[in-house]
């Protein structure tokens, strides 16, 4: 069996999307892309097409790893192998090549997120040397029965103007956000709305959010001074009460959003382990 890894940038985006859809169609969390959603993922998550990899076996595209970089950190955004090539060592070959790429770029740590129920993937990464760092919860709440409040409104805000507020909250509450909601990189989230939420005429916080099929996706939120996360959360629920549900993806346990969600009886949609590998 002849196999080698090549740079993702050597392939057309159409080929990459086809490979991703083939690889992840039967995973624990089935995933799918089109060209637009793929381009959005590349931009919003700092994915490097020149460093990401495709593994080729006997002339066929068999596996893929999308790698994102920030400062001296690498995140394996996604890694997978086609079903017929699994359990043949291709995953370990991809990891070996990822390690070499990261070492050459001066990366100090590699991280990834894996669903807790994907025991096979957790075992694979643990065997390679990754260790569980923390748990990330995707939390949702059905909005049926939530009373609306006509005194609550949203004002569009330039997302760049929210960075300093979010950084101040990060320091004040010792927040350690997930990769996508790191304040320094808010300006990459061009497909999301950035808003200030007001109650009556008073600004009480900010939101970074999107919506699809009557579901609100909240990437981050934070209260202004004199207000807190629980109060802000209640007002957010009231504002979006005409939607079916609200979802916060990948929130670390102990984060103020996690705590406020628990107070208001959010349910767990998905539990993931954030795992890390230190490069010495």
Question: Could you walk me through the main structural features you see in this protein, from its secondary elements to its overall organization?
Answer:
With 280 residues, the chain is an alpha+beta fold. It has two domains: 3-107, Aminopeptidase (3-Layer(aba) Sandwich); 139-273, Gcn5-related N-acetyltransferase (GNAT) (Aminopeptidase, 3-Layer(aba) Sandwich). It has helices at residues 13-24, 35-44, 90-105, 119-128, 163-172, 229-239, 256-263, and strands spanning 3-7, 53-57, 60-70, 73-81, 109-115, 131-142, 152-156, 193-199, 202-212, 215-223, 245-252, 267-278. The protein has a twelve-stranded mixed β-sheet with strand order 1-2-3-4-5-12-6-11-10-9-8-7, sandwiched between helices. The protein starts with a strand and ends with a strand.
Compact summary:
The protein is an alpha+beta fold. The chain is built from 7 helices and 12 strands. It has 2 domains: 3-107, Gcn5-related N-acetyltransferase (GNAT) (Aminopeptidase), CATH 3.40.630.30; 139-273, 3-Layer(aba) Sandwich (Aminopeptidase), CATH 3.40.630.
């Amino acid at each position: 069996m002849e196999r080698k890894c090549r740079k993702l940038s050597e392939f057309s985006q159409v080929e990459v999307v086809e490979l991703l859809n083939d690889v992840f169609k039967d995973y624990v969390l089935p995933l799918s892309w089109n060209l637009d959603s793929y381009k959005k993922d590349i931009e919003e998550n700092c994915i490097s097409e020149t460093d990401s990899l495709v593994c080729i076996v006997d002339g066929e595209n068999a596996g893929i790893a999308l790698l994102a970089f920030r400062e001296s950190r690498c995140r394996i955004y996604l890694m997978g192998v086609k079903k017929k090539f699994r359990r043949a060592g291709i995953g370990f070959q991809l990891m070996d090549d990822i390690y070499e790429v990261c070492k050459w770029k001066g990366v100090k740590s590699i991280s990834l997120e894996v669903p807790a129920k994907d025991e096979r993937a957790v075992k694979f990464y643990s065997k390679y040397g990754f260790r569980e760092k923390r748990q990330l919860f995707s939390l949702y709440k059905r909005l049926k029965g939530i009373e609306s409040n006509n005194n609550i409104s949203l004002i569009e805000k330039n997302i760049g103007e929210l960075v300093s507020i979010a950084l101040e909250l990060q320091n004040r509450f010792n927040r350690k956000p997930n990769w996508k909601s790191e304040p320094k990189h808010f300006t990459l989230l061009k497909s999301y709305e950035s808003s200030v939420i007001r109650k009556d005429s008073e600004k009480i916080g900010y939101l970074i959010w999107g919506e699809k099929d009557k579901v609100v996706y909240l990437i981050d939120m934070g209260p202004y001074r004199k207000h807190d996360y629980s109060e802000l959360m209640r007002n957010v629920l009231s504002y979006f009460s005409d939607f079916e549900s609200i979802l916060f993806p990948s929130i670390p346990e102990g984060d103020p959003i996690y705590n406020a969600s628990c107070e208001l009886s959010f349910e767990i949609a998905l539990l993931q382990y954030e795992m890390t590998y230190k490069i010495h």
